[in-house]
Write a structure and sequence with these properties.
This protein is mainly alpha-helical and 240 residues long. It is built from twelve helices and no strands. The chain has one domain (31-239). Helix 5 runs antiparallel to helix 10. The longest helix is centred in the C-terminal third of the chain and has 32 residues, at 169-200.
Length: 240
Amino acid sequence: MRNSALNFKIILGTIYITILFVLLYLFFTNFDYKDFSNFILIREKALLLEELVNNNYIFLGLIFFLFSIIWTLLFGFGTPLALFSGFVFGKWAGSIILVLGLSIGSFFLYILVKYFFHNLVKKMFYDKFQKFLFKFQKNEFTIFFIYRLIGGLPFGLANVVPILFNIKLKNYFFGTFLGIFPSIFILASFGEGIEKIIKTNNKMPSLFSALSEPSIFFPILGFLLILILAFFCKKYFNKI
C-alpha cells in the first residue's frame, strides 16, 4: 500500500510538472510582456481568441472540461479557471463546463485520496475537524452543501477533508456541484464582463468606467451577496 501511494504521488507530480512546463512554454512563445501594456494588442488577441473559440467551440470546450478534471486532481484551485471559462465560453456555458469538470475531478480525487491516503489525512486533520463529525452525521447532504457553499479552505484541501466524515459518493458529487456553482458562476460572469470591456473599447477604460459597467458591477454585487450568504450559512452551520 505504501509503495502504491508513493508511485501514485510520483505519477501525479510528473503529470503536474509536465503540464506546467507545456503551459509555460506555450505562454512565453506566443506572448511578449509588451502585449500586456498595450490595450490594442490585448483587444486584438481577445478577438482572435473569440474567433478561434467560435470555430472550434465543442472541441475547445471538451479540452477545457478535461483539463479542469486533471487540474482538480492535481490539487489546483478554481478561481483562475472560472475567470478564464467566462472570458472564453461565456458565463453560462463556461460555468456549466467548469463546475461539471471540477465536480468530477473532486469526486475522483476524493476516491483516490480516500483509498491511498486516508490514514495520512486523518493524522493531519482529524484533531482540527473532528468537532464537525456529529454535524455531518445529522444531515450529511445539507451540511456538505453548506460546507461547499461557504468555502473557507483552499479548493484542493476542501476536496479531501470530507474523507474524515466518510461522505457518501452521491452526496459528495451533487453537494460539490450545487455548492460551488454560485461562486463559479459569479467569477465566470466577471470573466465575461472583462471580455466585453476589452471587445467594446478601443482604449483602456478608467477604473470607475469599468466598475460602472453592468457586466462588471453585477458580478461584484453577486460576490458580495455570496459573502453575506456564506456568513449566515456559517452561523447556521455552527448552531447545528
